[in-house]
Amino acid sequence: MNKKLLSVFALFTSMFALNEATAQNRYLDEVFTSVSKSSNVVYDTNYAINLLFGNPNPQIPAQFTSSPVWSEKLKCDIYTPDGDTNNNRPVIILAHTGSYLPPLVNKQTTGSKDDSSIVELANRFAKRGYVVVAMNYRLGWNPAATSQEVATEQLIKATYRALQDMRNCVRFLRRNSDIYGIDESKIIFGGQGTGGYIALAGATVSDRADIESNIKFRRGDASAMVSVDTLGDWTGIGGVLPYNDPADASVSSDVNMFFNFGGAMGDTAWMKASSKPMVAMHTTKDPFAPYNTGNVIVPTTGLTVIPNASGAGDVIPKANALGVNNKLNSYVYLDPMSERAYTVAQGVNNLFGFETTFPFEGSPWEWWDRPSMQAKQSVLYRDAIPLPANGFTADTLSIKTNPFMSAERGKAYIDTIVGFVAPRIAVQMDLMGGLAINDFSLTAPQTGTSIDIQDDTAAFMVAKWQGTEGLDYVFAIDNINADFSDPLFSTAVTADSIVFSESTIWNLLTSLGVNVDQEVNLKWTVMSKNALYGKMAVQPFAINLTKRAAVGINEANYNKYITLYPNPATSSVKIGLDANAKITDIQIIDILGRQVKSYAGFNTNTQEISLNGIGSGAYFININTQNGGTATKKFIIQ
């Protein structure tokens, strides 16, 4: 159902572009000019890996080095639109990248809620009317581990802790929804890079077996790398001290929708029909996280830390197939970002594969100031201790996979991310406002209808559907088993019906190689459309067409000899047939193809019939003749 949107329904962009409204729509466009930011709001406290444990440096106080864990205050920044009077707003939570280590320590230029891309994204969404929360989460693992099993266990535990932190951030927002003006029923989580791992796990991990039974995440002795009894469950509930400070089980941690740009899913076996809706963006040649399915490798050691992880290219098609994204897929997205995404993803909806100009680029949306980055020699840890860190090394390594980095380029990618995600959030969260399109059905000809087609310009076939004022449409015909990706016929329409001469259909059938008296099984559908969205008819209708040669005396030409007077008519109409044949019976057919009146028992070339009881509108007169001929003519009743 998706691939056709490019080929068939791209007609709209050229045929109706000049008629599109330019009104601003909250949640889709930037309707606010400025944003306020509440910084370093503590949303939770929990046990984190202590990167200073056992450090022999005598200048570091012992309380910072004596324990392998420490109680960390987890912080977030909260962005709200200035001047907003709405106190019941959806909230978007953003998680940064960084490989579960502090910036620079991770040999990257990024790794916190203060990353340029996160700040830019938060401001863009806040200006659209969202409350946006940029969260930090617990860090800590050893990427220099030389054992694959050890490295895998440390990384999966780091992801698990961050997953719990995300859930506790949700709880904090629900407890404080009145303070921040949040609609508790509309919570969206988005993750960049490492945050993408959190997002994809959050959308899918939902039972103990996902964590403990997966063979990827078991040690050599078959024991689970992550014990729910010890670390608590995936929502932050349970566990034992000092591994987890359990959350308040009475407050829901449910998230309604997820999106990620970068990152991967530990195992697509986590995905179920009950998983949460998800939208994903990913560079197709990401060197760190696979776009499809492959191993996640630590660059510093070459170790595989997650075997056969799956990126957006495999995750989203499966989500669509499972029905996870059914609501998202109920609409066609006509924005230019989606049009480009459909092309790259070969028609898969909710997936944007970025084809970057550099072959090993994973995060083109990132940027930083190179001189100041190169000058950094430490990073503050635990708000008190400067950890040695080489900004020059981080800059050098980061620029290798982002060689064209600039603020302008990064912001352009952020613009695409917002432009791709925002229309889908609006659909899933019922935020479309006046752009929402009601479901509609085709009406005539009814599915399964068989119609004989002659090469006659005066005979007509009418297609009709449920219409809505203010919408445009595209009508399309395709083979019965095709998907409308390359339709046999399509055309733009501004009304809720379309009339074809039979000659048009005859010529179409001829171009398909259909012979006289050969039946062909086709189907037809319609898409309705406004400025940003399209929606398909509830289901296409089958139609069986047969080319028929003219039979009988002048039968093919009878349409040329039928006359109606007056037209438009009021109370009666006089029908004439100026041919060597007599009229025997007459039917009046409405625009839906329904017979509304019939008359029989004639043997004449001229006949006047009453129109009493027939409402005003467009109709067709069908006549039959004594020699088996037929004729049809359209007329209006006032």
Describe the model.
The chain has 638 residues and is of the alpha+beta class. It folds into 3 domains: 26-431, no CATH class; 442-547, Immunoglobulins (Immunoglobulin-like); 555-637, Macroglobulin (MG2) domain (Immunoglobulin-like), CATH 2.60.40. The protein is 23% helix and 30% strand. Helix 3 (116-127) crosses helix 13 (407-428) and helix 4 crosses helix 6.
Short précis:
With 638 residues, the protein is of the alpha+beta class. It is built from 15 helices and 29 strands. The strands form 7 sheets. Strands 1-2-4-3-5-6-7-11 form an 8-stranded mixed beta sheet, with helices on both faces.
- What's the rounded overall pLDDT mean? 92
Number of domains: 3
**Number of alpha- plus pi-helical segments:** 15
Q: In what range is the share of β-strand residues?
A: 25-35%
How would the global form be characterised? Answer: elongated
Radius of gyration using CA atoms only: 32 Å
Short descriptors:
638 residues; alpha+beta; Immunoglobulin-like; 3 domains; 7-stranded mixed β-sheet; 29 strands; 30% strand
Chart the SSEs and their pairings.
Blueprint: H1 4-7, H2 11-15, E1 35-49, E2 69-81, E3 89-95, H3 116-127, E4 131-135, H4 148-175, H5 177-180, E5 182-192, H6 194-204, H7 208-212, H8 228-231, E6 257-261, E7 278-283, E8 293-297, E9 304-310, H9 312-322, E10 332-333, H10 336-344, E11 351-354, H11 370-375, E12 378-381, E13 385-388, H12 391-400, H13 407-428, E14 442-444, E15 449-453, E16 460-465, E17 472-479, E18 489-493, E19 497-501, H14 502-511, E20 519-529, E21 533-536, E22 541-547, H15 558-561, E23 562-565, E24 572-577, E25 583-590, E26 595-604, E27 606-610, E28 617-625, E29 630-637
Parallel strand pairs: 3-4, 3-5, 5-6, 6-7, 7-11, 15-22
Antiparallel strand pairs: 1-2, 2-4, 8-9, 10-21, 12-13, 14-16, 16-19, 17-18, 17-20, 20-21, 20-22, 23-24, 24-27, 25-26, 25-28, 28-29
Helix pairs in contact: 3-13, 4-6
